[in-house]
Each structure stands twice: as C-alpha cells, then as structure tokens.
Amino acid sequence: MFVGHFAPALVAATQRKAPSLPVLFIGAQLVDWAFFGFVLAGIEHIRIVPGFTASNPMDLYDMPYTHSLAGSAVWAAGFAGLVYAMMRDKTAALIAFAVVLSHWVMDLIVHAPDLTLAGLPPKLGLGLWNLPSVEKPLEIGLTLGGLWLYARATGGLRAGIWGLGAILLLLQAIDWFGAKPTEVDAAMTLLAWFGYAVATLGAWWAARGEQRA
After folding, report:
1. How far apart are CA 79 and CA 66, in angstroms?
2. What Rg value do the Cα atoms of the chain yield, rounded?
3. For residues 137 and 8, is the Cβ–Cβ distance under 8 A?
4. Collapsing DSSP states into helix, strand and coil, what is residue 101?
5. Which of 11, 41, 56, 176 has the smallest count of CB within 10 Å of its CB?
6. How far is CA 179 from CA 29, 41, 81, 173, in A?
7. Which residues of 165-190 are buried (b: 16+ CB within 10 A; e: fewer)?
8. Which of 139, 27, 125 is nearest to 75 (CA)?
9. In terms of C-beta density within 10 A (0-12 exposed, 13-18 middle, 19 or more buried), how is residue 140 classed?
10. Residue 69 C-beta-side C-alpha neighbours within 13 Å
11. Structure pTM?
C-alpha cells in the first residue's frame, strides 16, 4: 500500500486537537521513511524478485526494526513524544501515535507474509498485493474517502484539496504503472523519499485553507 497509508492521517486531521495534516502525513509513512534509510545503510534488507507478487517485485524479507508491530510501536511512541514536546497536548500525541501505528495495520492487509510481531516468525500478511483487482480499488477508495472526510471537516472542497488529491493519484499511478525497480540501490531510497516528500507538500498546501468550527 502506498497512498492508502495517508487515509488514516486524513481522517485523524478531522479532529480538532490533531496535529497538522503535513505532520500526520509524515507520521503515516514514518516507518517507510526509516525503512528505506535502513536499507540504504544495510540495517534492513530487501531484494527484487520479478513476479514476487502480482503488484510489485519487492521481497521485503528483513525489516524487524520498522515493520514489526513492536518496532512500529517504538517509532509511533517516539513520534508521539515529539508531537507532545511541540504541542503540549496529550490528545494530539495519542492521535500521532495511532497514525504511525496504522501503517503496520494497513500493510498487514496487502503485504505477502513478511511482517512480524517482534522481528521473529511467524510472518504475517493477508497478501492483497496478489489480488490487484481488489487492492487497487480499496487503496483508491480509502484515499478518496479520507480526502472527503477531511474536506467536509475543514471547510469543504477547495484548491488545496483538489491539488492534494491529484498529487496522491499521480503518485499512485506512477507506483502502479511506472517502471519497476530492477535492483536495490540508493536511487530506490531517494525515489521513495521524494514521493513521500511530495505528498507531504501536498498536505501542507491542503492544510493552508483549513476552516474549523
């Protein structure tokens, strides 16, 4: 899952005490920001296996520090602590924690069995990446549903909302229909980070026009 990870951030941002939308967008993909950095540093590992799933060729065989439930919870706690330090609001911190942890739950739905509870077997994953006719509509539906809820709670459809929607759909189209990686290298990490950064800039644009009751 890619842009579908941002759906929990969009829903969370409808809450009055939530952190800002771009902060929540960072939280929604925090473990992937870390994962690709860890791959670049040789701490976690991925290999390219053509046909590994129907949707992408990535065999995510070693990622205990970012994509175990325990590891994700540690990242979530750290992010929540940072939000609390900035906002001095326990509710905002709890919302931030939930958004970061939602990444693991969303991945559980689509990944082949490669997620763990604490870095050791059993490996978990429902494997919807092997059913793209189900996974693709689900991902787009979650994203558009989150956008609609966010727009309804923050002043209705406006240029920033339309812009964010276009950015997310474009990024997802590139992920689905663009060239697939053929090797694990620095370019893979940089491209992933670039995509997350562009989505976060889109969230900043959308948040500029918020109108809350």
Report:
1. 13
2. 17
3. no
4. helix
5. 41
6. 22, 24, 38, 11
7. bebbeebbeebeeeeebeeeeeebbe
8. 27
9. middle
10. 12
11. 0.96
Q: Which two tokens stand for residue 159?
A: 């240029």
Cα–Cα dist 213/52, whole Å: 48
One-letter amino acid for residue 135 of the chain: E
Q: How far is CA 168 from the centre of its chain?
A: 11
Do the Cβ atoms of 63 and 75 come closer than 8 Å? no
**Residue whose tokens read 């925090």:** 30
Q: One-letter amino acid identity for 190?
A: L
**Model confidence at 1: pLDDT above 80:** no
Q: Which amino acid is at 15?
A: Q
Residues 6+ apart with CB under 8 A from 185: none
Distance, CA of 1 to CA of 85 (rounded, Å): 30
51-104, pLDDT tens digit by residue? 999 999 999 999 999 999 999 999 999 999 999 999 999 999 999 999 999 999
Q: Look up tokens 């939602």; give the residue.
A: 102
Average pLDDT of the residues of the chain: 96
Enter the tokens of residue 86: 């900035």
Domain coordinates of the chain in residue numbers? 3-208
Amino acid occupying residue 12: A
- Decide which of 156 and 75 is more confident: 75
- Percent of the chain topping pLDDT 70: 99
Is residue 212 classed as helix, strand or coil in its secondary structure? coil
